[in-house]
Design goal:
Its EC number is 1.4.3.4. By secondary structure, the protein is α/β, with parallel strands linked by helices. 22% of the residues lie in helices and 25% in strands. It starts with 6 loop residues before the first strand and ends with a helix. It binds flavin-adenine dinucleotide (FAD).
């Protein structure tokens, strides 16, 4: 399909939408990206704390097998550094025994973080996209198919194009955007039961004046089956002059307040590190289940990765005018940044060859 004269509308400025925009910006194709939030990046969100420490509240780690995203980073001159895991971890297997210090297995495949934070990838991609073609703060509500065009309606404007690409998690797409005419029933059934990766997760991060855990010969790595923090890691910056611990918080606490979650986290960390944890400089968190542009409630039980990469997301609708992209639609590495990049690359090839 040659789309050089066509107007392409991309819904969502997360990693998929921006990667697609980045590739399209190298061609003559006309395109616009419409983003509901007043920030870009979607599930990539590096929170800069008042003391300038970058805390990843969304995607953080890259792995060697994530070859397409690694090539993209190289192309954009972005660099990685290794996640510090250390040789030991605090481990709490059951509530009836005290926390233990365990040796971490040697020769583990390392994971990597992006220098300056994952947000650097988002900002670098956006730099290649014309400012007028990246529209933020406009929620798409309806996609209308009429003869040879599609009309994408937002809360305050209509955009007319020849092709529309959704990059929303499919479950969110079916729950929040109206299609006129309706798509085939199988699409709704599949999308309704498609898991949105990390949609239930809570991430928390503390910054500290000193990396006191290291004074106790601890790496900052925690694995617990007991406390509300199941996993935590040293999250200090690459220069190792801004000190932080960051981890996941049990998603069942999504209804408690930020202050309550902070206190519960401190109680758990105090067990391992003592009162020093209470001298934290900042506390940051993100409850992804409450993010209306990521998650909506499922009607039924949906298991992690369920229906990701399904056939319903590989085909086009509205006579090749509507394509469904996004990490959950990728046939490999779905859920991860790698899946988002692969999904964008697939759509780019479909649109330009
Ligand atoms: C807590 C957490 C930790 C993670 N950790 C990792 C990790 O370590 N490694 C890894 O590889 N991956 C990780 N991921 C997954 C990674 O973040 C995703 O794979 C990737 O960012 C998905 O990009 P996307 O563009 O497909 O979707 P999204 O980022 O969800 O982008 C969709 C975009 O659409 C916008 N949008 C939604 N509704 C509308 C609407 N109606 N109109 C217009 N715009 C709309 C959203 O605001 C968003 O910007 C993590 C995710 C989370 C949440």
């Amino acid at each position: 399909m040659n789309n050089s004269n066509k107007e392409i509308i991309i819904i969502g400025a997360g990693l998929t939408g921006l990667t697609l925009g980045y590739y399209l910006s190298k061609t003559n194709c006309k395109f616009k990206i419409i983003e509901a939030q007043n920030r870009i990046g979607g599930r990539i969100y590096t929170k800069e704390t008042p003391n300038n420490a970058p805390i990843e509240l969304g995607a953080t780690w890259f792995a060697k097998q994530h070859t397409n995203v690694l090539s993209l980073l190289k192309e954009l001159n972005l660099t990685l550094f290794e996640q510090v895991l250390g040789t030991t971890a605090v481990y709490e297997p059951i509530s009836t025994s005290p926390p233990q210090i365990v040796q971490l297995p040697k020769n583990q495949e390392p994971s990597y973080r992006l220098t300056g934070g994952t947000e650097q990838l988002i900002q670098k991609l956006a730099q290649h996209i014309n400012k007028d073609d990246l529209i933020i703060d406009q929620e798409v509500t309806t996609i209308l198919h009429e003869d040879d065009r599609v009309i994408v309606k937002t809360t305050n404007q209509n955009y007319i194009g020849n092709v529309v690409i959704s990059t929303l998690p499919p479950h969110l797409l079916t729950n929040t955007i109206t299609f006129d005419p309706k798509l085939e029933n199988n699409f709704y059934q599949t999308a309704k039961n498609t898991h949105t990766w990390m949609g239930e997760s809570i991430k928390i991060g503390f910054t500290f004046k000193t990396p006191f855990w290291r004074e106790h010969n601890l790496s900052g790595t925690i694995f617990s089956n007991v406390g509300p923090i199941p996993e935590m890691y040293d999250h200090s910056n690459q220069q190792d002059n801004l000190y932080a611990l960051k981890g996941f918080f049990n998603g069942v606490y999504h209804k408690t307040t930020k202050e309550e979650r902070c206190e519960l986290a401190l109680l758990q960390l105090e067990k391992y590190y003592g009162k020093q944890v209470r001298d934290f400089l900042t506390y940051e968190e993100m409850v992804w289940k409450s993010e209306k542009y990521t998650s909506t409630e499922y009607d039924d039980l949906v298991l992690p990765h369920q229906n990701n990469g399904d056939h319903a997301f590989q085909k086009s609708y509205y006579n090749h005018k509507l394509w469904i992209a996004g990490t959950e639609t990728s046939i490999s590495y779905f859920g991860y940044m790698e899946g988002a990049v692969r999904s964008a690359q697939r759509i780019f090839e479909l649109l330009t060859t």
